Amino acid sequence: MKTMLLMWMVLIFSGAMFAQTAKTMTINVYLSNEKLNPNIDDCNKVFPVTRKIPKTTATAKAALTELFKGPTKAEEAKGYSGMSAAETDGILKSINVKNGAAYVNFTSRVTVQMGNATTSCGGGQYWGMFDKTLMQFPTIKKVYYAVEGNTNDFYEWVQVGECPFGKHCAKSNFK
């Protein structure tokens, strides 16, 4: 009788544990790290940090949402740094993934709130964090950006000039 009761309890608890893990997924968020990249010798170099998030089919958006939270206190203690929640609040309008590309559409707030994103080293860090965080997914091989659906506004803001990516610059990609 005790054996039967014990087996029954194991089944119940293992089922509860399985259900809990089925509700989460693991992703990487890429952050800068002054200990792994002393003096920030390579501005584009970012490093993965593992995060557990609620399971979703919108993984790209969930990954950016997690990136926007910035490093945790424990990650900061290990030398990680990134964007702050204040910098990223309300900047993501939409993200569209199709044909191996992620089309990230920012609100106009991005140009005000993320001023360091246009400096040479700051830009390398920011866009490295975005690109690597999104390109961890097999459905994303390249990332393109726009502000309010306008790629030229984005690429001029980051001092590249007009969008240099031809068909990927179309507003229809950023809906």
Summarize this entry quickly.
This protein has helices at residues 2-22, 59-68, 73-77, 85-88, 109-113, 120-135, 151-157; strands spanning 24-33, 47-54, 80-81, 92-98, 101-106, 142-147. It has 175 residues and is α+β, with helices and mostly antiparallel strands. It has one domain (25-174).
Q: How is this structure best described in words?
A:
With 175 residues, this protein is α+β, with helices and mostly antiparallel strands. It has one domain (25-174). The protein is 39% helix and 22% strand. The protein has seven helices and six strands. A hairpin with a 2-residue loop joins strand 4 and strand 5. The longest helix has 21 residues, at 2-22. The chain is globular, with a radius of gyration of 20 Å.
Write the layout of secondary structure elements.
Blueprint: H1 2-22, E1 24-33, E2 47-54, H2 59-68, H3 73-77, E3 80-81, H4 85-88, E4 92-98, E5 101-106, H5 109-113, H6 120-135, E6 142-147, H7 151-157
Parallel strand pairs: 5-6
Antiparallel strand pairs: 1-2, 1-3, 4-5
Helix pairs in contact: 2-6
Element pattern in H and E: HEEHHEHEEHHEH
- Percent helix range: 25-40%
Tally the structural domains. Answer: 1
Which term fits the overall shape? globular
Poorly predicted runs: 5-20
Give the amount of beta strand, in percent: 15-25%
The tally of strands reads: 6
Distance between the termini: 62 Å
Structural class: alpha+beta
Read across the widest sheet, the strand sequence of neighbours is: 2-1-3
Number of helices, counting only DSSP H or I runs of 4 residues or more: 7
Q: What kind of assembly state do the chains in view correspond to?
A: single chain
User: What's the average pLDDT?
Assistant: 85
Radius of gyration equals: 20 Å
**Largest β sheet strand count, sense and barrel closure:** 3 strands, antiparallel
